[in-house]
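Action item from last meeting closed. Structure (175 res):
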């Protein structure tokens, strides 16, 4: 399967485990806990030259659990953007779902709410010309429900994703 990506395409990125180091059995709750993964800034800089938009869509139930606030999350996303700009990389927008998994909120992946928010803000987004990169099955389901190309980040092949790569860096290098 081969695609010709250009500025008419949008890149959707999960955050934890794709952009930054995932904390096992915990949540990134503060700027101090946020760590970009190796090669991510360079990958996003390249993605900015290929795709029309690069957005983050992230489930953040740590807010729903009361472990962090929306302000904490905003500070983390501001910090992420500050790290990226040093490498001439940028994220157009961050979307998040603060609710608990048990609530099945429309915003929470695999539901489509965050993608619809992105399309509302950036009308040119065409889900059939979008890529979803994530490290969980809910990320892949999110992309599939909307007709996106899907990329699974992880050590083992994901049978439902269009592509599998060890990291965002590895996938971006291949396009």
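Sequence:
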């Amino acid at each position: 399967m081969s695609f010709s990506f250009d500025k008419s395409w949008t890149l959707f990125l999960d955050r934890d485990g794709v952009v930054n180091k995932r904390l096992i059995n915990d949540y990134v709750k503060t700027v101090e806990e946020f760590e970009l993964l190796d090669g991510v800034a360079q990958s996003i800089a390249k993605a900015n030259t290929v795709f029309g938009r690069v957005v983050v869509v992230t489930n953040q139930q740590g807010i729903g659990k009361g472990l962090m606030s929306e302000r904490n999350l905003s500070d983390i996303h501001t910090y992420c953007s500050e790290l990226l700009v040093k490498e001439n990389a940028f994220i157009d927008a961050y979307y998040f779902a603060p609710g608990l998994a048990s609530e099945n909120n429309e915003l929470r992946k695999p539901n489509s709410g965050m993608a619809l928010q992105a399309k509302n803000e950036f009308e040119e987004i065409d889900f059939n010309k979008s890529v979803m990169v994530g490290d969980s099955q809910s990320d892949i389901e999110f992309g599939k429900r909307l007709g996106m190309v899907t990329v699974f980040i992880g050590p083992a092949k994901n049978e439902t994703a269009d592509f599998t790569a060890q990291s965002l860096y590895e996938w971006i290098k291949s396009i």
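Note appended to the action item: The mean pLDDT is 97.
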